Amino acid sequence: MPLPYVLLSAAVSLDGYLDDTGPERLLLSSPADFDRVDEVRASVDAILVGAGTIRADNPRLLVNSPARRAARISAGRPEYPLKVTVSGSGELDAGANFWHTGGEKVVYTTEKGAQRARAAGLAADVVALGPDLDWRRLLADLHSRGVRRLMVEGGGRVHTQLLQEGLADELQLVLAPLFVGDPSAPRLFGPGGYQRGRLRLVESRRIEDVVLMRYLPTAPGVGPRTTAADRHWLRLACELAEVCPPSRTAFSVGAVVVAADGTELARGHSREGDDPVVHAEEAALAKTDPGDPRLASATVYSSLEPCARRASRPVPCARLIIEAGVRRVVTAWREPDTFVADADGSGLLASAGADVVLLPEFEDRAKAPNTHVLP
Q1: Which residues face 268 on adjacent strands?
Q2: Which helix or strand (DSSP H or E) is residue 207 part of?
Q3: Residue-wise pLDDT tens digits, 296-330
Q4: N or C: which end of the chain has fewer CB within 10 A?
Q5: How much of the chain is in helix, strand and coil states, percent to nearest 5?
């Protein structure tokens, strides 16, 4: 099911705290960074905070710049992003700023919580996710409402849950030059099991006296379970497909091989280099060491289902993946019968014990470089 791009945004002290325990909110960002946050808010479709953040900080969550709001309207978007909150209990103060500023609002809660939230007369659409909070169902519902980019501004419990479930696509973390030193103060991340692998630092920037760091997750999912990292790597495979030399007799495909700890082992694309018939998975696997023990727990990301039969070479890509020892494949698009009838690379992989995961939200992206060969 398609999900929005989930961007976590937070500011912390040098010792990892979101706030202190005083009566007033501890301001961690600088004025220039508050303006940066306003710019990010203006770029997204929705902003989400937990119910605890509403109770503790009473935020308005507005785009403050009139110029940015005007630009949203000129682009045919609402003046303000959709405001979203999550509450398992449904106990929310109808007098909070959240409900009386900005544009439309949505509350996600449980079946029992929905009764309380509706009884409170909140100026919002109340959505019951079931007996418990289901983050995937929540994100899928937001996608159905047109939310493609979601900014999550807290609190720590919300950030923790999204990271633990592998649903965060990006972390924007601001480090403030001060210490809190109070173990009872709220921290950004709580204890629990997080996704494997190191995050990838993609930007580090000084903004007055704070530092912004942007991270992307890299560790793939396990078995049929998908993570934000799976979407990241499949997006890269689709980008590789776009650089393939065009052909009237073969698809343009990109592929990436990624270890379980999130390390990229190899990448390739169709007709790469001087080989006019090489396939993407074939090109990528040729760059790996056959004796690399990481292949057994690696994932192959391919913009198109690996082939089960081919005319140009005796060994199809699905078989090459099996022979390499890889047992997990994530793809965007099942191979049509354009060049090979009854193609079923997924079936061949599954029969060898591999997990094959299809992410149809990337199908249009994978098809884009191939429209000239599709009916």
Answers
A1: 255
A2: strand 200-207
A3: 999 999 999 999 998 889 999 999 999 999 999 99
A4: C
A5: 30, 20, 50
Question: In angstroms, rounded to a whole number, what is the distance separating the alpha carbons of residues 102 and 79?
Answer: 8
Q: Which residue, among 78, 12, 92, has the nearest Cα to 45 in the 3D structure?
A: 78
Residue 297 sits at φ, ψ, to 5 deg, of -115, 15
Distance from C-alpha of 20 to C-alpha of 111, rounded to nearest angstrom: 34
Consecutive H or E run containing 117: helix 111-119
**How far from 370 is each of 39, 69, 240, 248, 345, CA to CA, in Å?**
36, 38, 13, 9, 19
Cβ atoms within 10 Å, residue 79 = 15
* Three-state SS letters, 225-243: CCCHHHHHHHHHHHHHHCC
Please give the distance of CA 69 from its chain centroid, rounded to a whole number. Answer: 26
Would you say 34 and 139 are in contact if contact means Cβ atoms under 8 Å apart? no
The token duo for 139 is 């994100």
Distance from CA of residue 112 to its chain's centroid?
Answer: 29
**Which residues fall within 8 angstroms of residue 90, CB to CB, at 6 or more apart?**
107, 109, 110, 112, 113, 114, 115, 116, 117, 120, 126
pLDDT in tens, 15-25: 999 999 988 88
Contact 45, 214 (CB under 8 A): no
Question: d(Cα 219, Cα 264) in Å, to the nearest integer?
Answer: 10
Q: State pTM to two decimals.
A: 0.81
- Looking up tokens 């090489």 gives 278
Mean pLDDT to the nearest integer, 195-224: 90
Angle of helix 31-43 relative to helix 66-74, nearest 10 degrees, comes to 10
Amino acid, single-letter form, for residue 78 = P
